[in-house]
Amino acid sequence: MTMQFKNLIGGEAVSASTYSANLNPSNTGDVIGEFAAGTKADVDQAVAAAKAAFPAWSRSTPQERYEVLKKASDEVLARKDELGRILSREEGKTLPEGIGEATRAGQILAFFAGEALRLNGEAVPSIRPGVGIEVTREPVGVIGMITPWNFPIAIPAWKLAPALAYGNTVVIKPADLVPHSAWALVDILQRAGLPKGVLNLVMGRGSVVGQAIIEHRDVAAISFTGSVGTGRAIAAACVAATPMKKVQLEMGGKNPLVVLDDADLKTAVECAANGAYFSTGQRCTASSRLIVTEGIHDRFVAALTERLQGLVVDDALKAGTHIGPVVDAKQLETDENYIAIGRTEGAKLHWGGERLNRENPGFYLQPALFTECTNQMRISREEIFGPVASVIRVKDYEEALAVANDTDFGLSAGICTSSLKYSTHFRRNSEAGMVMVNLPTAGVDYHVPFGGRKGSSYGPREQGAYAREFYTTVKTAYTFAG
Length: 482
Known about the structure:
With about 475 residues, the chain is an alpha/beta fold. Helices cover about 40% and strands about 25% of the residues. The chain has helices spanning about 40-60, 60-80, 80-90, 95-120, 155-165, 180-190, 205-215, 230-240, 265-275, 295-310, 330-345, 380, 395-405, 420-430, 470, and strands spanning about 5, 5-10, 10-15, 20-25, 25-35, 120-125, 130-140, 140-145, 170-175, 200, 220-225, 245-250, 255-260, 290-295, 350, 355, 365, 370, 390-395, 410, 410-415, 435, 455, 455-460, 470-480.
């Protein structure tokens, strides 16, 4: 019998009139569960619960917030194998990647448990005699969160943990393709001791649930990760709202990996294979533009092709699988359309790009490598969000840097080189929020800021101590002592 998962509102499981099936992309005959399809009325109830809980939670002690987050972290880490399997079953990334992501969620919760105790302020002398100034940080209010499907437990964790650590209350809507991971995380946090109403989960369609959260007058801030088009619409709505809302957006990338003639070939190939194809290329930090100088170009393409030929594409839960399926039929169609566009534009499909059949029906796609690309082709400029990468041949470092920066995005950028001169120059002149040297463009730590420039990000950074810039508001208080 298929399990039903209800919305979690005001500390209670709330039934829905309709439920949606959650399918395993590695085996579309496997129904993971039936998940509540929320409505505007559910959002209204959740926001009311969060608003009612805010006064007490915002004035709770740092120790109380620490204990809840630490207890939740302990459970996530103790259950990392189980949670990783839930994640891989519904999203399609390999089981080791799923377990790794669940582990990261636990680490994020532990970090922000500590941050609850580390929040501080300033006592500042005034320019006027007898006046004291105190600068403090306070919680913002009810935070609305809309999270994507590609990191279904890590991204909810890195939004929820700072929001709760700094005393906010939350209404979260996970991507409707992957509700189980977020449901499990919210359930853990509630049982860790959160008062009723502090954290509320409403599942369902973005056009219904997400829109209702964005438009609700009592939601003070919106944190969103997803597409550029949706992000722009959210930003406009938040500015136009009365009262205006704080907004934080993470919206993707078209990330370059520069490979110079002096690069270690094995390192460069591993950076490219990992960054472009692991997690099925479904990462906003994926290196989908491989910008390679002439002297190493042919050797790099040959070695990368050999590496791709050895990668196993199969069921995410199978031992030995390197790349799982694409998340769903719609994304698979998008990937195949871009492969067709690349060929039409004149790029050479050097290897892969074919739909694959496996033991169970699923959304399997062979990694695609294009060569003879230019930076003006659509496959070099638009985010595909699949296992597709373009090799762009350039003359030298100067041209490589110019091509790397010639993009509407600016999330992550990488360079493979043995030159201290070029690596230093690239770090300083790359127009990206994160820069990697001899490392994949995908893969970041949880205790430092995450975010980009241009069309990739808008608003304060996520993760690390920098998260407080979004989840708190600054108050300056003056006192005349006489």
